[in-house]
Amino acid sequence: MNKNILICEDDEGIVEAIKIVLEEKGFSVYNSLTVQDLMENIQKLNPRLILLDLWMPNLDGEEVAKKLKKDPSTKRLPIVIISASKETKRIARETGVEDYICKPFEIEYLEEVVEKYAV
Amino acid sequence: MKKIKKYFKNQPIRSKLIIPILIIQFFLVIAIFYVIFVISQVQSGINAASEASKKVTRYSTDLSVIQKRMQSALLLYGLNQDETYLKEIKRGEAEREIIQKKLSPIVTGSEAEFYFKSYSDNARENSLFRKNIINSIRNGNDMEIENNFQKWYLRSERMVANLDDLNNFYTISTEKGLSSYQELVTRLYGLITILVVGTIASLFLLYNYLTRLITNPIKKISYATHQISLGNYDINLKMNYEDEIGRLSKNINEMAIALEKKDTYQKKLIEKSREVQKRKDQFIGIASHELKTPLTSIKAYIQILKKRLDEEYDPKKTKDLLMRTDIYLNKLNDLISDLLDVTKIQSGKMELSRREFKFSEAVDESIRTVKSFCSSHRIEKQISTDAVVLADKERIQQVYINLLTNAIKYSPSSDKIILNVKKKGKKITSSIKDFGIGIPENKHKKIFSRFYRVDEPSTRFSGLGIGLYLTSEIIKKHGGKIWVESKQGKGSTFHFTVPILNE
Hints:
The complex is a heterodimer. Chain A is an alpha/beta fold. In chain A, about 45% of the residues lie in helices and about 25% in strands. The longest helix of chain A has 13 residues, at about 10-25. Chain A is globular and about 30 Å long. The relative contact order of chain A is 0.19. By secondary structure, chain B is α+β, with helices and mostly antiparallel strands. Chain B has 10 helices and 7 strands. Chain B has helices at about 1-10, 15-80, 85-105, 110-140, 140-230, 245-310, 315-345, 360-375, 395-410, 465-480; strands at about 355-360, 380-385, 390, 415-425, 425-435, 480-485, 490-500. Chain B has a 5-stranded mixed β-sheet. In chain B, strands 1-3 form a two-stranded antiparallel ribbon. In chain B, helix 7 (about 315-345) packs across helix 10 (about 465-480), helix 8 crosses helix 9 (about 395-410) and helix 9 (about 395-410) packs antiparallel against helix 10 (about 465-480). Chain B is rod-shaped. The chains are: A alpha/beta, B alpha+beta. The interface of A and B includes residues 17 and 20 of A.
């Protein structure tokens, strides 16, 4: 069972922070900046979880989440959305993703969420 | 009383005017009726007089006939001495007396009365002579009989003459007078009819006139003003006369036009302010996200550090994390400064602190700063002046950093930026050219406005979107100009000028 986690995040600092935290837990973290990259990585790496930032250039997080959840081949893939927006909770509910994390977050909370869903 | 007053007050104008007129006409009608009454009295007078006149004529004719009969009787008696004729004469007198009594009260007028009196006197004498005749017949005196016969006959002739006069008088003069009076009365009736018809017609005309002049125009005005209150300004009241109502109509037309203008203007203002509000809200959303982003990493690093310090102490890794934290704190600080600048500009408090410096130095420092956090692009320098300017060095650097950062951000698929600085007369002219996504023509002016982003939130380039606004305010405050040359898909060149002010 691999321990691959995909993230979609455009801010380097946050990517780095998440990598440090999750790599400590033994996960391998890969970042995708475009939808294409993301789909490729899903195919290639068969991740256990996707951490999806909603506010990114070249990538509409909400749309991507909806698409992945509709598509039967990716429906089972756990998705956790990360965002600084007030709408995060509502979007999580509407897109049917597993959970959400609000920015800024406690790293302990991040660890918990990842361990819960990356089964 | 109050109810009556209230009722009267609430009547339409037309009625208000017509009610007093009706009252006046009511009196007129009463007067007319009185006149009709008087005329009818006169008419009956005329009729009575006419009747009387006919009676007089008839009676006097009858008397004349009686008298002539008596005359014949006398003649016949003279011929054959038959006593029956004398009796006829006596009978004639009796009949005469009856008719005289009937005639006496209806003969009026001094001339007619004179004729009748003459007749009456003659009739009395005539009777007397008749008695004389009978006496003289008893006496058997032929000469006396003859005498009295003659006297009686004479009188009789005179009586007939009187009666003729009386008759003529009534037939000619009285009838004439009566007929002229009759004509007068007929004319009066005609006049009264005209008056009555005229009164009724005038009432109708007045009613119509008032309707046309006052009620209808006012109704139209009432409708028009109601339309205006509903927001429909397309009224066009026709002005039929140059009177008060006509002027009112004209004024209302003008008022509608003015109100429409105001309305349109107001709507525009509201639209504009709505747009500004929308952009403000967008900005706040974006700002909030942008500020939270460095905070997220800062917080994460601090927490990682804390964890590390609890577990094991690796100085290299610790130092690395602390450095990163510091960088993000700077980024956060810059963002907050930008926001503060925006509010300063809004409240008119942005001030420049000018000092003398070499312009090219500021440009070089800006380039170095940009290169330090973004090395993806090559910046080609074309600086051809070493002028010293009097300006706010930090703000000028801010301008260059903003424009260069934008150039890099909005040309992700190219790697070159051309920066040009030269002196032109009393100004420094500068341009920054990128080969990126460009800006459509219709947005060239808007991009310098507050809170404006060319793209919709969905494409989401990072950043607050106030950089260009601040840049343009800084240039304007220095007394310079800034503009852009760009086509969508073909890159952008930002130009600006800064007055040197140092010579």
